[in-house]
Amino acid sequence: MSEFPPRTTIKRWLVTTNHKDVGILYLFTALFLLVAGGVLALLFRIHLWEAGGIGFLTNTQYNQAVSVHGLLMVFWFISPLGFAFANYVVPLQIGAKDLAFPRLNALSYWFYLFSGILILLSFFQGTTWANGWYMYAPLNVPIYNPGYTLTMGGNTTILALTLFVMSVTLGSVNFLTTIHCCRAEGMGLWNMPLFTWGTLLTVWMMLFAFAALLAALILMLSDRLFLTQYLSSTADGSSLLWAHIFWFFGHPEVYIVFFPALGIMFEVVQTFTGRRLVGRKWVIIAMVLVAIQSFLVWMHHMFLTTINLPIKTLFMATTIGISLPFDLMVFSMIYTMVKGRVRFTTPFLFVLGALLLFILGGITGVFLGAVVLDYELRGTYWVVAHFHYVMVSGVTALIGGLYYWWPKITGKMYDERLGKLSFAIYFVGFNLLYFPMFLAWETPRRVFHYNEGAQLYQQLATVGAFVLALSILLVFITLAQSIRSGPDAPDNPWQFARTAEWATTSPPPLENWPNRPSYASGSLEFVDDTPATDGGAVAHGRAGQAESLETEHEDHASIWPFGIGIGMFVTFLGLSGLTPFVAEFATARGAEFAGFPPPSGPNILYPVLSVVGVGILGYTLFEYGREQFHAPEMEIAERWPFEGVDTTKMGVWFFLASDVVVFGAVIGGYVFMRLSTGWGQIEPVPPSAIVGLVNTYVLLTSSFTVVLALTMAERGNKRGLLASMGATLALGLTFLAVKGYEWSQEFAHGIYWFTDLEYSMYFVTTGLHALHVILGLLIAGFMVYRVLTVDAYLEDDRPVEYFGLYWHFVDIVWVILFPLFYLM
After folding, report:
1. 558 vs 306, which has greater pLDDT?
2. Which residues form the Heme-copper oxidase subunit III family profile domain (predicted)?
3. Is 80 exceeded by the pLDDT of residue 530?
4. Dmax over Cα atoms in the chain, in whole Å?
C-alpha cells in the first residue's frame, strides 16, 4: 500500500507497520489487559476477605480468576508493556528509521492482540483455564482433570498462549536483527543506551526461553486436542518432564520481564541525577552474566521433586550466584544517586520505588534459593509475596518509563502533582497488598481456605489491592488530562537526557530524522547524504552509497499482517473444539478416557471455523508474499559482530536458532521419557528401518536439489531454477507420501497416537517434523509461482539461499530423528 492514512483514521491503525505506531498499539493493548487482569485480582481478593471465602465466587470461579490473572499479568501485560517502549524507543536510540522487518513487527502485534482476545473469549466457552499459570502436569491434560480441563475454554487459553509465543518469536527475531544490524554509524555495542542493552538481552533470552515454552505447549496441545499420552503417564516421569521444560523457560522469564524495566531504571537515574551511570561497563557485563546464568538455575523451582541432593546443591549455588551481578547493578544506581544531584520528578520516584521494592524482593528470594528453607517456604504466601515484589517492581519501573517517555510519545506534558500523587498512592497500596503476605507466610498459596489467625493480613491485603487499583486509575487520569489539556512538550523536557530519542521532535516524524544520524565523530550529528553538485556526497567518506540513500523511500502500510492475524485467530478458535471429535474417533477404536464424552458433545461449528481460518490464512499469506513492500537496509550502519551478513539472512539464522531449541526440547523430552521408563523397555515403533532409510535418502537428495537451485539462480538460468525447485517439491512430496504410508501401516494394525506413550512420542515428534516439511513445500511452491509469473530470483538470488537454509535445517533434524526412532 503506497498511501499512508493519517493517525485520526481507523485505517491507519489497521495497516501501519511504523515502529512508533506499533509501539502505541502495544502500549494501549497492554494497559487494557492490565485492567482485565487487575479486575480478576480484585474479584478473588474480595473472596479472600474471610477464611473459606465469602461466597462471592464458586470454587471453580476462584481457580479461574487466580489462574487467568497470573497468565494475563505474566504474559500479556508486563512483557508487552516493555515491548511497547522497545518498539517506540529502540530504533530512535540506535539511529534507525524503523525495525529491520516492519511488516513482521506489525504481524507480531496482531498475533499478540488476537491472542489476548482469545484468552478473554475463553471465559465464554464454559470454563476457562483453572490450573494455575504454571500449568503443571498431569493436571493440565484431560485424563486427570476431566471436570473443567475438558472444556473448550481451557483449550482456547493454551492456544492463545501458543499464539502469544509465536508473536514473541517474531518480535525477538526482529529486534535481534535490528539491534545487531541497524545501528547508526559509529555506535558500537558498548556505546548503546542502557535501555537498548536491556532490550537486546531480553530478546536474546526470549529467543531461547519462549522456544522451550513453545515445545512444552506443543506437547500439551497434542495431549489436549489429539489425546496423546505425553503428560498423562504419571509413572513415566511426565510431570518432571513438564517441570523441566516449563521452568527452563520460567526462570529466564523473570529476567525477560525485568530487564526492560532495569534499562528504564538506568536511563531515568542518569537523566535525573545529571550523571553518567557509575561503573557503566561493569553494569553491562553484569547484565550479560545474568542473561546467561538465567538458563542455569531452573531446577531451584523443583527442590521438592525427586531430583537428588547433589544436583539440588549445585542449583542452590547457581541460584545464589545469579544474585551477585544484581548486587553490582543495585549499588551502581545507588552510588550514581549519591554522586549526582537528584531531581525528584514523577519518573524518578517510580524508579526509586522500583529499586526499593526489588531489593526486598531479591533478599526474600535468596531464602528460596536454599534447599532446606525452600522445603518450608515453597507453596506458601512467602513465595507469592517474593514473586510480586520482584515482578511488580518491574511494573513500577515501567510506569516510571511511561511517565518518562510520555512527552516524547504524545508531545504533551502532564501535571507533576498528579503524577507524584499517583506514585504515593501506588507505593502505599503495593506494600499494603503484598507485605502482609510475608507475615502470613504459612498460608498455602492458591487456595481460599486459611487459618483464621491470618484473616487480618488477608483483609489488609484486600484493602491494599483496591488502593493499588486506585493509583493505576489516577495514572490513567493524569495521562488522559495531559492529552486533553496538557502543555506542549519540548523536544527534550528533561535537562540531562542524552540519548538520541530526545534529539528529534516530540512526537517524532514518520521516519524519525530529517537526515542520517551518525556517531562517527564521537557524538551525535546528522549527516546530509544528498548528492553534491559534483556527484559526491557528505557521508564520512562513503560517498558511493549516497545515491542509493537518496532514492530509497520506506513503505509504512500493509493490511496483510492484520489479515494473517485474523486467519490465525479464527483457526485457533476452531481448534479449541477439536477434542470431542478426536475422542469419538478414539473411543470407536477401543480407547477409554475419563470424562468422555464431554457433556456438550462435538460442535460442528469448530471444525468449520478451522477450515475458514486456514482459508483466510492461506489467502493473506499469499498476498503478503506478493506485496511489493519496500523496507531498505541501512547502507551505512554498525553491524559488529555480523559484518557481511545481510539483514534478512540474519533474521533467518535467528529464527532457526529458536527452532533448534523447539526441536531440542521435543527430542530431549523423548530421550528423557525413554530414560525414565528404561531405554530398553521401548522398542522402535516403525516395524522396519528400511522405510526411514528411504526417506533419509529422499530428504538428503532434496538438499542437493536446493543447492542446485541456488546455483541456477546465481547464473540467471530460469529453466534450471524451475527444474531444481520442482525436483525439491517432488522429493518433499515423496517424503510425505512415504511417511503417510508408514503411518497408515501403523493404523492398520490398531496403533494410533493415543494408544500408548511410545506411540505418542513417535507420532508427535515425526509429525512436528512433517509439519515443517509441509511449510517448506508451501514456500517452495510459492517460489515456483513467482519464478513463473515475474521471473523472480534471477537478478536477486538471496531468497533461494534463505529457503535453502530452512530446508537444510529440516533435513538435519530428520538425520537426528532417523536413528532415534528407527534404530535405537
Report:
1. 558
2. 548-824
3. no
4. 86
Has residue 589 been placed in a domain? no
Average pLDDT over residues 730-750: 96
- What does the pLDDT read at residue 329? 97
What grid cell was written down for 5? 492514512
**What φ, ψ does residue 820 adopt, rounded to 5°?**
-65, -45
pLDDT tens digits for range 630-672: 887 888 999 988 998 999 999 999 999 999 999 999 999 999 9
Q: Tell me, what CATH number does 284's domain have?
A: 1.20.210.10
Q: Is residue 525 a part of any domain in this protein?
A: no
Task: Choose the final residue of a domain: 447, 478, 500.
Answer: 500
Query: Angle CA(340)–CA(341)–CA(345) in degrees, nearest 5?
Result: 120
What is the domain extent for residue 699?
A: 681-823
SS3 276: coil
Q: Which residue has the cell 504515593?
A: 424
Residue 204 contacts residue 224 (beta carbons within 8 Å): no
Q: What percent of the chain has pLDDT over 90?
A: 82
Please tell me the predicted confidence (pLDDT) of residue 595.
Answer: 60
Within a domain: 716 = yes
Domain end point (choices 455, 485, 500): 500
Look at the chain and report how many structural domains it folds into: 2
Question: Under a CB-based contact definition with an 8 Å cutoff, are residues 520 and 186 in contact?
Answer: yes
Give the count of beta carbons closer than 10 Å to the beta carbon of residue 52.
12
410 in any annotated domain: yes
**Distances 351 to 259, 325, 394, 404, 423 between C-alpha atoms, Å:** 13, 19, 9, 10, 10
Q: Is the dihedral of CA 514, 515, 518, 524 positive or negative?
A: negative
Mean pLDDT value across residues 140-167: 81
Would you say residue 79 has pLDDT above 60? yes
- C-alpha dist (Å) from residue 506 to 183, 425, 489, 513: 22, 29, 7, 12
Residue 333, pLDDT score:
98
- Would you state the pLDDT for residue 679? 85
pLDDT at residue 235, as a whole number: 64
pTM, 2 dp: 0.95
- Residue 169 C-beta-side C-alpha neighbours within 13 Å: 25
Which pLDDT value is given to residue 681?
A: 84
Q: Which of 245, 42, 40, 196 is closest to 129 using CA atoms? A: 40
User: What are the counts of helices (DSSP H) followed by strands (DSSP E) for the chain?
Assistant: 25, 2
Q: How far apart are CA 127 and CA 148, in angstroms?
A: 6
Q: What is the CATH number of the domain that holds 762?
A: 1.20.120.80
Q: From residue 301, give the alpha-carbon distance in Å to each of 245, 296, 555, 651.
A: 12, 12, 47, 33
